[in-house]
Design brief:
Elements lengths: L1 E5 L3 H12 L3 E5 L3 H8 L10 H10 L3 E4 L2 H6 L3 E4 L14 H13 L4 E5 L7 H12 L6 E5 L9 H6 L4 E4 L3 H11 L6 E4 L1 H32 L3 H9 L20 H14 L5 H25 L6 E5 L14 H11 L3 E5 L4 H7 L4 E2 L3 H5 L4 E4 L4 H4 L3 H7 L4 E4 L6 H7 L2 E3 L5 H5 L2
Bound molecules: nicotinamide-adenine-dinucleotide.
Length: 437
């Protein structure tokens, strides 16, 4: 099938590459000329494991191409995937202007029947809005349909998630349109849900909001553990064995970040308010998430006896491991607070430092974790990259000036850290409980 993907970000580039790999002819279109130029040179504008190889293979086989001419790409395709950004507006409301712009381009290029598939995360009702824009702006009276096909991939495992999704949701106006999209996904042999457009749009927000709720819930429990002399890691084990609860997304830490959860929870709160329902549960989830770093930093500041003139090493900058994405990364909040308190920040991340230099230029970027630790009064673990699990920790400690280790992801074993000589602080882990181990 001839496919056009509008937007070559994390979702669009991965979606386009996977559909090409499944044997379709795919053209990925983006209005950002620098991204398309990079892709033309075989360079990836984002870091995603396995992506470069997949893109190269399909470009070489002639199934995948890139362009800035969105209109032309639409003209040549039967199915068009909209994969543009839907950031938060100033009050947390979802900004769908990129989706509207893509719809306008599709309207102008409409030359024969096409299925327009919205993969961007959008508030309920956007499918209708896209239909309306195309209907009122098309130059020829040509038929089209609008489908909602929300994306559930996770950055860092995007290729794997796209090839092996837990489910594929197809919100379509009728069965025959749904079948066109179902056929595209059939080679993946994964569970598919065919539903209406509005329900599909809500499924995406409800899923992300539920996962965010799990994270804030366990962070609230961690905060109680700290006060009560309990160990949240034990609590999580005891809860996670219950099959009704499960252990996924039940890790205490600095809270959720990234390009999806913070904006999608805010968007759902906003959409609910607009529809006349106050989603108080989700409002509390967002508040807990916002205060999690503040609590952590208050503890760090108290342990350091103030931030002025202190040297703090930050390990991990990306919002989670295996990505270079810094959107809503907790590292940036932490660095902001450290710099505002006149501390010196030495940071290291295996992949995200290039992007971090642009947004946090006042930080001293280091060669590796040991270099970052050099002369530090405290070490703060922010992103649980695999390589940090296997650090030579005695070497880290001997490079430091102090011995404070603030572990924002509960990556390390507190008892072992204490034995090594660190003054260890995790999330929801109290020494009273750990002494009993
Ligand atoms: P992104 O910002 O990485 O990429 C969006 C791309 O769209 C950019 O390259 C931009 O230049 C391009 N673009 C914007 N308007 C355009 C237009 N009119 N014509 C052509 N190109 C245009 O965004 P992303 O992270 O890939 O997310 C895209 C959507 O998917 C969002 O709604 C997001 O919420 C959702 N989503 C993201 C993820 C994720 O992990 N990143 C997962 C699931 C869903």
């Amino acid at each position: 099938m001839d496919i056009c993907v509008i937007g070559t970000g994390y979702v669009g580039l991965v979606t386009g590459s996977v559909f090409a790999d499944l044997g379709n002819e795919v053209v990925c279109a983006d209005k950002d000329a620098s991204k398309i130029e990079m892709l033309g040179r075989g360079e990836m504008p984002i870091y995603e494991p396995g992506l470069e190889e997949m893109v190269a293979r399909n470009v070489e086989d002639g199934r995948l191409s890139f362009t800035t001419d969105v209109e032309d790409a639409v003209t040549r395709s039967e199915v068009i995937f909209i994969c543009v950004g839907t950031p938060s507006g100033p009050n947390g409301q979802p900004d769908i202007s990129q989706v509207e712009e893509a719809a306008l381009t599709i309207a102008r290029a409409l030359n024969r029947y096409k299925v327009v598939v919205n993969k961007s995360t959008v508030p309920v009702g956007t499918g209708n809005r896209v239909r309306e824009i195309i209907e009122t702006n098309r130059r020829r009276h040509v038929d089209f349909d609008v489908v909602s096909n929300p994306e559930f991939l996770r950055e860092g495992s995007a290729i794997h998630d796209t090839l092996h999704p837990d489910r594929i949701v197809i919100g379509a106006p009728n069965q025959s349109v749904a079948m066109i999209i179902l056929e595209l996904y059939a080679p993946l042999e994964r569970p598919m849900l065919i539903t209406d457009v509005a329900s599909a749009e809500i499924i995406k927000y409800a899923s992300n909001a539920f996962l965010a709720t799990k994270i804030s819930f366990i962070n609230a429990i961690a905060n109680i553990c700290e006060e009560a002399g309990a160990d949240v890691v034990q609590v999580i084990k005891g809860m996670g064995y219950d099959q009704r609860i499960g252990s996924a997304f039940l890790q205490a830490g600095l809270g959720y970040g990234g390009s999806c959860f913070p904006k999608d929870t805010e968007a759902l709160i906003h959409t609910a308010d607009r529809l006349g329902y106050s989603f108080d549960l989700l409002k509390a989830v967002a508040t807990i998430n916002r205060t999690q770093v503040e609590r952590f930093m208050d503890r760090l500041e108290a342990a350091l006896g103030g931030l002025e003139g202190k040297v703090v090493a930050v390990l991990g900058l990306a919002f989670k491991p295996n990505t270079d994405d810094l959107r809503e990364a907790k590292s940036l909040e932490i660095i902001g607070r450290l710099l505002a308190g006149n501390a010196k920040v030495r940071a290291y991340d295996p992949i995200a430092m290039e992007k971090a230099r642009e947004v946090a230029p006042a930080v001293c970027y280091c060669e590796n974790a040991y270099d970052a630790a050099a002369g530090a009064d405290a070490l703060v673990l922010v992103t649980e990259w695999n390589e940090f699990k296997f650090l030579n920790l005695p070497r880290v400690l001997s490079a430091m000036r102090g011995k404070l280790l603030f572990d924002g992801r509960n990556l390390y074993d507190p008892v072992r850290m204490k034995r090594l000589g660190f003054d260890y602080h995790g999330i929801g882990r109290s020494w009273a409980a750990l002494n009993g181990k």
